[in-house]
């Protein structure tokens, strides 16, 4: 079981002694993290990004990805520190440092910064707070967040565009977006935001395109993909239920039987 300790609102330490298999994530804020031990695999539509012990990664906000955490090669626990560079702090930093409005960021959503010795030293400075989280008060936390921003800006001018592009997702082709991302098990409200719509507009546009509700369409798409993977690709139900967007094997089996009249295991036997 994963144990998450919030050192402060934007600074989080998490640790687990067990493998954590493929959970969906959507970060509304940028995240800068270091893998203290174990490893994490991030699966996105752009490919797979792997963080091993000592790896440092900057993740772009408003990205969808699935994650699998594994113990280290000798059974070391999964442990990492994450810092969320939220829009409020970034706006304030931009104002106080006269940073102008930036154009839309077009680069990679995940940037490997493992070789940056200054960021490594920065994360080492956070280690004493793991045993004394109350010492990390609001004033110190803000200083640490701003220190992280400053170090990123000194690393490359590209991070100015990465961090200070404050544009929200614009209204995009909803049919193409949903067909590309239906396997991600995130709230409908998150799909709405990422498609550049309010929740009410998203539901209205969705019904106009797909002639049903988002909830019904998502379940149908996921089950049909699961049927294909089991029947045509000879996959086991336990291998694919998370991949197609279900939270548990039991929920997947129940929904599958209701849709197709038999369990996934029955189909696998045919």
From TrEMBL:
Keywords from the UniProt entry: DNA-binding, Transcription, Transcription regulation
Record-linked SMART domains: HTH_ARAC
Top-level taxon in the UniProt lineage: Bacteria
HTH araC/xylS-type domain ranges (all copies): 172-270
Listed name of the protein: Helix-turn-helix domain-containing protein
InterPro entries given in the database record: AraC_XylS_family_regulators, ExsA-like_N, Homeodomain-like_sf, HTH_AraC
PROSITE patterns: HTH_ARAC_FAMILY_2
A Pfam family that the UniProt record links to this protein: HTH_18
SUPFAM superfamilies reported for this sequence: Homeodomain-like
């Amino acid at each position: 079981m994963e144990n998450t300790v919030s050192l402060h609102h934007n600074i989080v330490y998490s640790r687990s002694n067990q493998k954590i298999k493929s959970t969906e994530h959507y970060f509304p804020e940028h995240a800068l993290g270091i893998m203290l031990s174990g490893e994490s695999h991030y699966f996105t539509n752009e490919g797979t990004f792997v963080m091993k012990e000592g790896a440092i990664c900057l993740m772009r906000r408003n990205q969808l990805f699935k994650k699998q955490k594994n113990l280290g090669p000798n059974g070391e626990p999964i442990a990492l520190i994450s810092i969320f560079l939220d829009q409020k702090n970034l706006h304030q930093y931009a104002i106080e440092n006269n940073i102008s409005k930036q154009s839309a960021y077009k680069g990679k959503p995940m940037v490997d910064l493992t070789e940056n010795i200054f960021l490594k030293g920065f994360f080492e400075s956070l280690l004493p707070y793991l045993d004394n989280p109350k010492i990390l008060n609001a004033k110190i936390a803000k200083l640490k967040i701003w220190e992280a921003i400053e170090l990123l800006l000194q690393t490359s001018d590209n991070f100015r565009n990465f961090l200070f592009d404050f544009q929200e997702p614009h209204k995009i082709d909803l049919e193409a977006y949903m067909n590309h991302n239906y396997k991600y098990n995130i709230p409908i409200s998150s799909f709405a935001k990422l498609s550049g719509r309010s929740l009410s507009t998203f539901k209205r546009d969705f019904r106009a395109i797909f002639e049903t509700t988002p909830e019904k369409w998502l379940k149908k798409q996921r089950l049909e993909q699961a049927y294909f993977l089991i029947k045509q690709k000879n996959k086991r139900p336990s291998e694919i239920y998370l991949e197609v967007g279900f939270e548990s094997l039991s929920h997947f089996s129940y929904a599958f039987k209701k849709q197709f009249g038999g369990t996934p295991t029955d189909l696998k036997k045919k």
